[in-house]
Amino acid sequence: MTRGPTLPAHPYPSGRVAIPALPGQTRTPPSATAVEGFNTAPADEAHATLLTCLHSLRWAQRIAAHRPYPDLDSLLAAADEAAYDLSPADLAEALAAESLPALPADTYSAAHTALSAAHAAYEARFGHVFVICLGDSTPTEALDRILEGIRSRLANDPDEERVVAAEELRHLARGRLISALENPHPTGRP
Question: Is the pTM for the entire model greater than 0.85?
């Protein structure tokens, strides 16, 4: 498969999950202590945590530089604002670090084949991996949502798709940030 010049190859499946939370996995918002922990963490640690949420150096630097945040809502608002301000280069950087959404473990092989073909068509058209936030989907709906999303978004022109992909990244970053605050010492990307 041919990739855009700025995007590295990535294996499928990668093991990284682009699903912040699925229904049935109820989350309680991170405590004020978690936000305070983020606020008082060393700058390099806060920056590293943020890069696990969205791999954009500018996004992570901006959020880390504006600490302390009085509460979770303020932190999430800052994360959203920084995501809205991503330049095309920042967006390309973030998309290059994304992986394909993971499928439920019991997905049959024909679905993997269909998904691989859809991903290949998407990457050939737009030059980056397909990103989608499945936070409001059940595990049984994930495959259908991914395939439906790819197929409908293949009709977008590149400028339209850049806007949609940026919005999906914003949602993913928000969910990952909440996960990072809930588990401040992750072993990998949330």
Answer: no
